[in-house]
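Please, structure for the following, as tokens.
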Amino acid sequence: MRKDYDQFESLPAWALKTLRLHARDERSYVYTLEKFERAKTHDPLWNAAQTQLLQEGRIHNYLRMLWGKKIIEWTRTPKKALAIMVELNNKYALDGRDPNSYSGIFWCLGRYDRPWAPERPIFGTVRYMSSKNTARKFNVQEYVQQYSSSYKGVTLEK
């Protein structure tokens, strides 16, 4: 195991380069740690995933990937996003501080992956995920209904 497994600088060179290149890209939404922690974003699917983490100490595996990708998208810098993911994971996840947990978090930032085209704002060539595409592979309506006290039907962002 590498000693710097939990450090932003331990990401593959290609991921560091593309994330740094796009670190100052404009974000449509920017949330604080407190807003993330309380599941108070504009995205009902992300809020449901965070609520599951708060209630059960876990997030459905596929949604855990989206959870991390959206934190990157809605945080001022990828390094700050990493700090938020680690904080929330270590505070609430049953597997917090576990090496597998760190692997999942760092996968969101490009570890164990490859560059993906097209290059996108914020992510560069790091794999992007959207709530809308997630709905093609996952029963979003049922999940959001289960983990949301204010469920009124889901409108997913692109």
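The radius of gyration is 15 Å. The chain has one domain: 27-146.
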